[in-house]
Each structure stands twice: as C-alpha cells, then as structure tokens.
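Renewal narrative, Specific Aim 1. Our central claim is that a sequence can be written position by position from structural information alone. The example that follows is taken directly from our test logs and has not been curated for this report. It begins with the structure tokens describing the chain, in the order in which they were read.
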C-alpha cells in the first residue's frame, strides 16, 4: 500500500498489516523522524539518478540526481504497544537549492539538503534501499500528473453535473496526452517542461494568419526565442509520413 503523509497513521498501518499487506507511506518531518535521519552517517548514502527528472514545486527546478539511505525505524511509539509498527525509514535527500534556507544557518543537517522520507514494512531482502525508493516514488509521479491536470482543465471543475464532469475529465486527459506528445516531438529542453510552460511558449503565441495564393501563411513574431522549437513541432506534426523501405 503506497500513500502520502495524510495516511501516515497507526490505524491505517495496522489495517493494512492485518489484511496481509505491506505499507510504504510518506512520513511527516516530526522531531522523531529528524532525529532518525540525523543518525545516518555520510558514508551510508547511495547516489541515484532519475531516468526522468522530477519537477520540484518548491524550488521550481528539475531534479535529476539524489541520494538515498535508510535506518531501522519503529513507528507510532507514542501509541499503545499493539499499534507499534517496526520497519524501515527510507530517506531520499537532494541539495537545497533555496538560497534563503541555505544561508539561514539554523540547522546544518537540513540547510544543505532537503529530505523526503517514507516508512515501509517491506523486508530489505525483498527490496533494497534503492528499489524501495524507486517503487515509492511512482506514487509521486502520478501526483505530478495530477498537479499538471489541476493547473489546467481540471481547475474549472466541478460543474455540478455528473455527465459534464465526466466529459471534461476525458477532454482534460486527451489534452494532457497531446501536450506530452508535443513536448516529446519537440525534444531537447522542451521535452520535460510543464504543460503551462508549453502552453505559454509554443501554443499561446501571438501570430497573424494571412491568405496568399490559396495558402495560409502564419506570421510569427520576429526574434521569437522559441521559433526553432515551434518549427520542429510543426514539421514533425504536419510533414508527410516517412515511407518505409520494406
């Protein structure tokens, strides 16, 4: 069972374990968790590189590298003993890019890095630290897609009419897929930008359409910084398909 910090509770964990399931739940950064992170030695961290960069909302930057480590951890020790849960605290850290926090000098451990931790009851022999982090991070990827949708078409929901909402969700999903396909066709620096950036730079552009010799001509702005990317998408989408030699 993968879940975010809203579901980090003794009752959820116990219910999952009683049903025969393991859990992987993001934890809140309370004093106990911070103390556990503080016991991790510098040599215990393992570097990982994301196959696809992850967008960090707080710093508004793409993160492609991180480090992971873990410590044994017993959760919910403030509850009665039957609710205690023994497992692993898997921690991922990335460099702190926020200069204000880096220069604050309040806590050297948390000024230089940002930490993301989750509690899991999955045995280490089944999934080591890197594998456990990779599996748990899949939850974050779908959250990123949800954030993209909420920043787009889903911002206008709900309408109060079920069928209208269902149709709007379908349109939102189609739009999202088309935007990601367009970003992939453009490639380069545009392949991983957010949907809002793609709409601003490539789709919502000032242009003038003219008719000449039975052709439509699109007059784009001069010295437009995204002209190359737009042309790449234009040719990829509108050029005749490549003929197969077989």
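The sequence written for that structure reads:
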């Amino acid at each position: 069972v993968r879940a975010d910090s809203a579901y980090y509770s003794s009752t959820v964990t116990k219910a999952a374990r009683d049903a025969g399931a393991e859990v992987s739940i993001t934890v809140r950064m309370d004093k106990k968790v911070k103390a556990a992170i503080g016991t991790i030695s510098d040599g215990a961290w393992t570097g990982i590189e994301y196959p696809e960069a992850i967008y960090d909302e707080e710093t508004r930057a793409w993160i492609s590298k991180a480090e992971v480590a873990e410590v044994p951890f017993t959760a919910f020790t403030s509850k009665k003993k039957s609710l205690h849960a023994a497992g692993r605290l898997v921690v991922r850290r990335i460099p702190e890019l926020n200069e204000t926090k880096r220069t604050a000098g309040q806590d050297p451990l948390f000024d230089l890095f940002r930490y993301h931790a989750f509690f899991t009851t999955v045995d280490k022999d089944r999934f080591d630290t890197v594998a456990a982090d990779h599996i748990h991070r899949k939850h974050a990827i779908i959250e990123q897609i949800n954030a993209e949708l909420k920043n787009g078409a889903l911002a206008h929901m709900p309408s109060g009419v079920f069928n209208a909402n269902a149709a709007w969700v379908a349109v939102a999903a189609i739009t999202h897929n088309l935007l990601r396909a367009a970003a992939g066709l453009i490639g380069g620096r545009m392949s991983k930008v957010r949907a809002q950036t793609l709409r601003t730079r490539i789709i919502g552009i000032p242009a003038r359409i003219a008719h000449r010799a039975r052709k439509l001509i699109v007059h784009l702005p001069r010295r437009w910084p995204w002209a190359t990317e737009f042309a790449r998408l234009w040719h990829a989408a509108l050029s005749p398909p490549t003929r197969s030699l077989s």
